[in-house]
Amino acid sequence: MSERCSQAGCPEQAVVSLEGNAFCRAHFLAFCYKRLDGISKSVSAKSYNITQEEADAAARFLQECMRDAADIASAQEMPSNIERAQVYDVLLWSSELHGRLRRSPRKAARFPLLLRSEIPGRIWEVRTETAVVSRYGMSLACRADIRPKDSLICIRLDTGRRAEAIVAWTRANESGEIETGIEFPHEENFWGLMWAPTSEQIGTPGR
């Protein structure tokens, strides 16, 4: 790439083009870190807050970011040790976030549930409802002795459908309830909702 970095006042030569902007290594890294941090906050397990349109745009950015980072890492003119470490960090972070996006966007939806624990010494059941659901799980709040990695039985009170579930994370809120994220290891669409195709279903385009 023979053009200059498009960032104002930067005299360096561009090494990649990302989202229509030409970047030198330093500005590529700064731009990626800022975007990756924003995407990470939007798709975090505890506060997934991203629309389908935003998820599609994020996926396109992450694919382009991964390709550009890989190109920089394999270039004949290698960056400094610090920049090389940052390039690999960007590559790994973007790959991780892209994996989260493939798990499908979430939807705010309330489904009445009965959660049941049959763990010896901690047998309980509680009625609650979902706050957010995905193709593979849900988040909710309840008052129960619920812990990460617990195996639970989830029963929909509106349909009677039941499934095995695994607790991914928990945290206490100000009202004393336990907020939790729960995944279905053997169910793909427990909620019977329409979901947009994931990149795995439609194929990831090559460069």
Structural summary, described in words:
With 207 residues, the chain is α+β, with helices and mostly antiparallel strands. It has 2 domains: 16-102; 107-183, Thrombin, subunit H (Beta Barrel), CATH 2.40.10. It has 4 helices and 9 strands. It has helices at residues 25-42, 52-73, 81-102, 199-202; strands at residues 16-18, 21-23, 107-108, 112-119, 122-134, 137-142, 151-156, 162-172, 178-183. The chain has a 6-stranded antiparallel β-barrel with strand order 4-5-6-9-8-7. Strand 7 (151-156) and strand 8 form a beta hairpin. Helix 1 (25-42) packs antiparallel against helix 2 (52-73) and helix 1 (25-42) runs parallel beside helix 3 (81-102).
Question: What's the arrangement of secondary structure elements?
Answer:
Blueprint lengths: L15 E3 L2 E3 L1 H18 L9 H22 L7 H22 L4 E2 L3 E8 L2 E13 L2 E6 L8 E6 L5 E11 L5 E6 L15 H4 L5
Antiparallel strand pairs: 1-2, 3-5, 4-5, 4-7, 5-6, 6-9, 7-8, 8-9
Helix pairs in contact: 1-2, 1-3, 2-3
Helical content band: 25-40%
| SSE-based structural type | alpha+beta
- Gap between N and C termini: 17 Å
Q: Characterize the biggest β-sheet.
A: 6 strands, antiparallel, barrel
Number of structurally distinct domains: 2
**H-E order:** EEHHHEEEEEEEH
List low-pLDDT spans. 198-207
Task: Please count the beta strands (DSSP E, at least 2 residues each).
Answer: 9
Put simply, the count of helices is 4
The percentage of residues in β strands lies in: 25-35%
Judging from the principal axes of the Cα atoms, what is the shape?
elongated
Q: Which radius of gyration do the C-alpha atoms yield?
A: 21 Å
- Largest sheet, spatial ordering of strands: 4-5-6-9-8-7
How confident is the prediction overall: mean pLDDT? 83
